[in-house]
Amino acid sequence: MVVSGSSEVPAPAGSNYDRLSEIKAFDETKRGVKGLVDAGVVEIPRMFFNPPDGLEKAPGDGLTQFVFPVIDLGGMDRDPIRRKEVVDEVRKAAESWGFFEVVNHGIPVSVLEEMLAGVRRFYEQDDEVKMELYTRDTSRRLYYNSNFDLYSASAANWRDTYNCIMAPNPPQPEELPAVCRDILMEYSKQMMKLGFTLFELLSEALGLNPTHLKDMDCAKGLVIVNHYYPACPQPQLALGTSKHTDNDFITVLLQDQMGGLQVLHQDQWVDVPPRLGALVVNVGDLLQLITNDRFKSVEHRVLANQAGPRLSAASFFSTNLLPSTKLYGPIKELLSEDNPPKYREITVTDYCTYFLAKGLDGTSALLHFRV
């Protein structure tokens, strides 16, 4: 064993280690990481081992100096002065953090709690039911798997995922799993409404008409990604989600009280504290692209934990892989002689296809599209 700090990290795999065989055997079970935990695993398979540099800067390293932005959306529709204050808070957070939490956002706590309960029910139903949805075909509207980049990533993440494309063409109710059907439909409606509000605030924060981003179809697509992070017997060796940025316009995250989400801010990993009734909002790569780097899509990750399971539902606003010829580039109104375009025009499909093929390798897909 090689010692790195206080955590023991396994020595590099020898020539007798057949990673591909281990990945295939895991994938063919169709039971995901939860299946390993259900089977009583006490030592995680080597395919999940992260290199020491992937686990750098453990929590506690100077994190107390930062206060994560929390924005209260209450009352702004009735008070123009308060709305101006909210827009200013959104602008500052989007430019400096790329992340913020919103409270008093209009979605009842009962709906948030039922959404997390629905995520739990999906993963804790009989394996045979889930296995029918298990696939590596990420172009499907609904699918369940573990690690979309399982075969290309240097280390697998300790999590399973259920993916649902909910807009612009919502699935028929009978297409959704019975255990979470009703709440997925209700939550999607509530999330689309909140998404419109957030895009209005972001438009105003850029000095544009409130409907500018919505008119660009930034709010047209919604993909809800439900993650399940089982308890990890060796959390010092793995990550729940590797560091990455999001391949959308914005993400709105509902997380439970387990914690583990961290944002890279001023070269330090800062915890995003769970807050009852709050939702975490972050700028995605596509919003950074169209704002010409004014709003920042920031790296974030999820730590593995021994307590588990951790539940979350991430709402990605993007048309994702839906066929479209609509081109996105830096917004003309934001450009000037001193601020020329930094990115070429691309389709959302171009971006998502490249992002998915690249996987969560720790580098930004945006670099590929710079002028």
Q: What class, by secondary structure content?
A: alpha+beta
Q: How would you sum up the major sheet?
A: 8 strands, mixed
Which quaternary structure do these chains form? single chain
Q: What is the number of strand segments?
A: 14
Share in helix: 25-40%
Query: Secondary-structure element order, as H and E?
Result: EEHHEHEHHEEHHEEEEEEHEEH
Would you mind describing this structure in some detail?
The protein is of the alpha+beta class. The protein contains nine helices and 14 strands. The strands form three sheets. Strands 3-4-12-9-14-7-6-5 form an eight-stranded mixed beta sheet. The chain has a four-stranded antiparallel beta sheet with strand order 8-13-10-11, with no helix packed on it. A hairpin with a 2-residue loop joins strand 1 and strand 2. It is globular and about 60 Å long.
Structure in a nutshell:
The chain is an alpha+beta fold. It contains 9 helices and 14 strands.
Features:
9 helices; alpha+beta; 27% helix; single chain; 371 residues; four-stranded antiparallel sheet
Protein topology:
Layout: E1 2-4, E2 7-9, H1 19-29, H2 32-38, E3 70-72, H3 80-96, E4 99-103, H4 109-124, H5 127-131, E5 142-145, E6 160-167, H6 181-205, H7 212-215, E7 222-229, E8 239-244, E9 250-255, E10 261-265, E11 268-271, E12 279-283, H8 285-290, E13 300-303, E14 310-317, H9 348-358
Parallel strand pairs: 3-4
Antiparallel strand pairs: 1-2, 4-12, 5-6, 6-7, 7-14, 8-13, 9-12, 9-14, 10-11, 10-13
Helix pairs in contact: 3-6, 4-6
